[in-house]
C-alpha cells in the first residue's frame, strides 16, 4: 500500500491520472488537491479530497506532517498563454509552490530515510529559441517564453535535489516528462499554445466551425492523453531510473494545423476553419520543436502511437456531444 499526493486533480492530465491511480491499486491512499471543487461523482473511497490553493504553504506542510507520502504527482500549473498574461501568478504557481513541494518531498525522504518519488510534467516549451526537428534532451535549451523558463528552472531544481538525495541515500527521486500538446476527448483545453488542435477536434465533432489562432503551416508534436498517462506510469513504476538526466521527451505524432484540418474534413465534410494568427501564440509555437526524439523514453518502455487517422477516429468516438 502506498500513499500518494496528486495536485491539480481536476485538470486535463490530473483528472485522468487520478482515475489511473485509483484503478491501479484500490489499497493506495490518495490525497487529491485542487483549488476547484470536486465533482459530485468523485466518490472514490480511498481518496481524501482537499479544495485549496497550492500556494497555501501551511496546508502543504500539514499534509506532509500527517502523511508518509511515497509518490507525488504535481500537475497544478498555468499554461503558456496564461503565464504570459499573468507572469506574477505564473512565478508563484509554476515556480515558488513547485519548489516548496519538492523541498517538502526531499525533507520527508531524509526524515524517513527513503526516496519520495516526485513526478513533474515539463513541456516542449523548454526548447528554443528557434524551431528544430527531432529535438533531443541534450539540444539547445534557450526558451523564449516565461513558461518555458519556469519549466526549465524546475527541471534543474528537481535534478539538483535528486543529485543531493543520491549522495544522502535518501530524499527526493525526481522524474519528469517533456510533454507536447495533449489531445484528450474528455477536456477542451484553454490557456495553452497547443490548444488549437484539441479545440479543432472538439469543434468538428460538435458541428462548430473553428477560428485557428496559428498559421496553417504550424507544425507541433502531440500525444494522446491515454499515452501520456501510460508514459507517466512507466516512468514512475521502476524503483529507480539510472540516469543523470531526469526529464525525457514523449510524443505520438507531429502534424501541421492544415493536415489536421484535412483529416477532420474527411470525417466532417461541413467542417470549416479560418486561420487568423494571434501573434503571441504564433511566436511561441514558432520557437517550439516540430518533433521530438523520444529514444530515451522508448528505452524505459514508452511506445509512440503514430497512426494519426486511427487515433483521431478513436478520439472522435470518445467525445461526448
Ligand atoms: C501549452 O501549450 O502551454 C502546453 C504545453 C505544450 O506545455 N500544452
Spatial order of strands in the largest sheet:
3-2-1-4-5-6-10
CATH superfamily of the largest domain: NAD(P)-binding Rossmann-like Domain
Question: Which CATH architecture of the largest domain?
Answer: 3-Layer(aba) Sandwich
The residue fraction in helices comes out at 40-55%
The end-to-end distance, rounded to whole angstroms, is: 38 Å
Provide structural commentary.
The protein is α/β, with parallel strands linked by helices and 321 residues long. It is 42% helix and 19% strand. It has 11 helices and 12 strands. It has helices spanning 12-24, 57-66, 80-85, 87-112, 146-168, 196-205, 225-236, 257-267, 279-287, 295-299, 308-318, and strands at residues 3-7, 29-34, 47-51, 71-74, 115-123, 171-179, 181-183, 210-212, 219-224, 247-249, 253-256, 273-275. The strands form 3 sheets. It has a 7-stranded parallel β-sheet, with helices on both faces. Strands 7-9-11 form a 3-stranded mixed β-sheet. The chain has a two-stranded parallel ribbon with strand order 8-12. Helix 1 links the parallel strand 1 (3-7) and strand 2 (29-34). Helix 2 runs parallel beside helix 4 (87-112) and helix 4 runs parallel beside helix 5. The chain is globular. 2-amino-3-ketobutyric acid (AKB) binds next to loops. 2-amino-3-ketobutyric acid binds next to loops.
Amino acid at each position: 500500500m502506498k500513499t500518494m499526493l496528486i495536485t491539480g486533480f481536476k485538470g486535463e492530465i490530473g483528472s485522468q491520472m487520478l482515475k489511473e491511480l485509483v484503478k491501479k491499486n484500490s489499497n493506495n491512499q490518495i490525497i487529491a488537491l485542487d483549488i476547484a471543487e470536486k465533482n459530485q461523482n468523485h466518490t472514490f473511497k480511498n481518496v481524501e479530497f482537499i479544495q485549496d490553493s497550492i500556494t497555501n504553504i501551511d496546508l502543504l506542510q500539514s499534509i506532509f506532517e500527517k502523511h508518509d507520502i511515497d509518490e507525488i504527482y504535481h500537475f497544478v500549473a498555468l499554461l503558456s498563454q496564461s503565464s504570459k498574461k499573468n507572469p506574477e501568478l505564473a512565478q508563484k504557481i509554476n515556480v515558488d509552490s513547485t519548489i516548496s513541494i519538492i523541498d517538502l518531498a526531499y525533507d520527508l525522504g531524509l526524515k524517513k530515510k527513503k526516496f519520495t518519488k516526485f513526478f513533474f510534467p515539463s513541456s516542449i516549451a523548454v526548447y528554443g529559441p528557434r524551431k528544430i526537428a527531432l529535438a533531443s534532451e541534450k539540444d539547445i535549451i534557450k526558451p523564449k517564453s516565461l513558461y518555458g523558463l519556469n519549466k526549465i528552472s524546475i527541471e534543474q531544481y528537481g535534478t539538483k535535489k535528486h543529485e543531493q538525495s543520491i549522495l544522502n541515500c535518501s530524499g527526493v527521486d525526481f522524474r519528469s516528462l517533456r510533454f507536447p500538446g495533449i489531445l484528450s476527448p474528455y477536456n477542451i483545453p484553454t490557456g495553452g499554445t497547443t490548444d488549437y488542435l484539441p479545440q479543432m477536434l472538439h469543434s468538428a465533432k460538435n458541428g462548430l466551425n473553428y477560428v485557428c489562432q496559428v498559421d496553417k503551416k504550424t507544425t507541433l508534436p502531440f500525444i494522446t492523453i491515454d499515452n501520456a498517462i501510460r508514459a507517466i506510469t512507466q516512468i514512475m513504476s521502476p524503483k529507480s531510473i539510472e540516469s543523470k538526466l531526469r526529464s525525457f521527451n514523449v510524443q505520438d505524432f507531429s502534424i501541421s494545423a492544415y493536415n489536421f484540418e484535412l483529416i477532420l474534413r474527411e470525417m466532417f465534410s461541413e467542417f470549416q476553419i479560418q486561420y487568423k494568427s494571434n501573434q503571441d501564440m504564433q511566436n511561441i509555437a514558432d520557437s517550439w520543436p516540430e518533433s521530438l526524439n523520444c529514444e530515451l523514453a522508448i528505452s524505459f518502455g514508452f511506445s509512440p502511437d503514430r497512426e494519426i487517422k486511427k487515433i483521431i477516429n478513436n478520439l472522435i468516438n470518445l467525445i461526448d456531444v
